[in-house]
Write a structure and sequence with these properties.
Two copies of one chain form a homodimer.
Chain A: E1 3-7, H1 22-28, E2 34-38, H2 48-59, E3 65-68, H3 75-81, E4 85-87, H4 92-101, H5 105-113, E5 118-121, H6 123-126, E6 155-157, H7 174-184, E7 189-191, E8 197-201, E9 204-208, E10 213-216, E11 223-225
Parallel strand pairs in A: 1-5, 2-3, 2-4, 4-5, 6-7
Antiparallel strand pairs in A: 1-8, 7-10, 8-9, 10-11
């Protein structure tokens, strides 16, 4: 049975890295004393080592050791032997390119589907969806495909942002962009606001946190779903 | 000699489509009575026909007829015979995929480099750069490559948006995203605010409009460049 947390963001405004997720992590990683961290999204261009150190500091209070996936001579074998995983945010194109080119997307998917706990934030959550095609990130590198793990039967739009009233900017709103996605694709999209996360356990999928999320289904008007709601209908 | 306008946006807040660009268009398309419109970016999923009609209405006051590129049986031949071009905004991934798959990116580049006037707005401006890798758009389709026409020796970031003070949103700012681009690429990037455009004529490249633009060069701190400045140094 899959056990997964896909969070909109790692960090809430004014808070420390992963601070608001500590209780969730304690539940998700119960009984786990070491995880593999996937640092490939490199937010702001941070090095794999520095990013892994940042993640390790946030897992230390839980008594969980963190090892970067980039440090293994045989990362696919390391994934199959790991107790659990965390993929940090950053640039989704970079993350997806690296995972595919190192042929690690399928091993990671298989390990998570076998029941090993997985947490993603932002880009790390995007790869839990069907594809990375509803990321907000800039295409700074060219991945061999946009397909991701499909741990859930829909796509995420992390850091979902409502239109800002009175802003005279004419660039597309997030809602317009997701509408454009649905002119070309039918995969449902969950607009996940900062502070919200998707929780997968015992075959159910739930919207967690305190905020509602915005649901986009092809051919339907977007609508809000309250925190605590089941997402199992969305496919 | 190339004669090109690459605008940040088609439409200023509260104004009609292409209204602020009418004087620029009168100069760019002087002596031209018909252009080809490239409708492939399909903003909001609008049809090729509907988008072409919208462009035609904005060109009518100049006495210029507009024909959609999608209407030609042999679009490559049509490009080689055309008097000039306009590519509208929308989704850059869709635009680039279509141009490459129909093998029209190179013919369009060749025609513009032969001196035929070209105007782009937003996505239509992105394809004037080296690559589409600094677009703001969502990757709703998978193009065969991110390379574009390279009519100018740098990339654009249209609808350039400064950080909004006091916004507690933790998603990346535009400046952070472009910084991430430069961890992987060395192509300079021009952050082009709405109301600004790049003007190429007689071998010179100039920043036009009333606003400054933000210049991003790999390994340097970003800086502002005043309207009216030459951009010929940027490569």
């Amino acid at each position: 049975m899959k056990h997964i947390v896909l969070a909109s963001t790692s960090t809430l405004f004014g808070e420390a890295y992963l601070a608001y997720l500590q209780p969730v992590m304690a539940t998700l990683y119960q009984g786990v004393d070491e995880i593999i961290f996937v640092p490939f999204a490199r937010p702001g261009g941070i090095s794999h080592d520095a990013y892994t150190a940042k993640a390790a500091a946030a897992f230390a209070p839980l008594g969980i050791r963190v090892t970067g996936l980039h440090t293994f001579a045989d990362p696919a074998a390391a994934i199959s032997q790991a107790q659990g995983f965390f993929t940090g945010g950053g640039n989704t194109f970079l993350l997806v390119k690296q995972l595919h080119e190192l042929q690690l997307m399928q091993p990671l998917k298989a390990a998570v589907e076998s029941g090993k706990p997985y947490m993603g934030c932002s880009a790390g959550s995007n790869i839990g969806g069907i594809s990375m095609q509803t990321t907000n990130d800039m295409p700074i590198v060219y991945p061999p495909t946009f397909e991701t793990m499909g741990l859930i039967p829909f796509n995420l739009n992390p850091h979902y942002l409502d239109p800002i009233p009175g802003l005279p900017h004419m660039g597309e709103t997030r809602e317009t962009r997701i509408g454009e996605f649905h002119t070309q694709n039918t995969t449902p999209v969950l607009g996940l606001r900062e502070g919200s996360w998707v929780y997968v356990k015992d075959g159910t999928i739930t919207l967690e946190g305190t905020l509602s999320a915005r649901i986009f289904e092809a051919g339907k008007a977007p609508y809000e779903l309250e925190a605590g709601s089941s997402l199992s209908f969305l496919r």
